[in-house]
Amino acid sequence: MRFRSPFLLPPLNHLAQAARAVLQNTAQINQMLSDLNRVDFANVQEQASWVCRCEDRVVQRLEQDFKLTLQQQNSLEQWAAWLDGVVSQVLKPYQSTAAFPKQPSSSCSNGLSTVRW
């Protein structure tokens, strides 16, 4: 079974194109930074530690990295690379477990490769 749903790929393409437009707009990036600076990250850290048992320093580092990446006005491709690094780092402790899949299913990989970033 292939991951070629006609209902899923157009919204993903639309989302990627909309994200690119936002990331190229300095005014919107500045507004996002302003909004982020009003977020109560102490509360976010508390909830994250309860929900996913992560350490406060992990949430702090993600907050700092996210804001820095936003300030650098990176491209969508750079954001995707940053997010890939975040996911890899967060999942690293679990990679040696038996329940951790070694690679995504081919149907998922084939479908996502058709998204136009």
UniProtKB/TrEMBL annotation:
It holds the Pfam family BCD_RFX. It comes from the Eukaryota. InterPro entries: RFX-like, RFX1-4/6/8-like_BCD. Residues 12-101 form the RFX1-4/6/8-like BCD domain. One of its GO terms (molecular function) is DNA-binding transcription factor activity, RNA polymerase II-specific. PANTHER family: MHC CLASS II REGULATORY FACTOR RFX1, RFX TRANSCRIPTION FACTOR FAMILY. This is RFX1-4/6/8-like BCD domain-containing protein. It comes from Alosa alosa. The lineage of its organism: Eukaryota, Metazoa, Chordata, Craniata, Vertebrata.
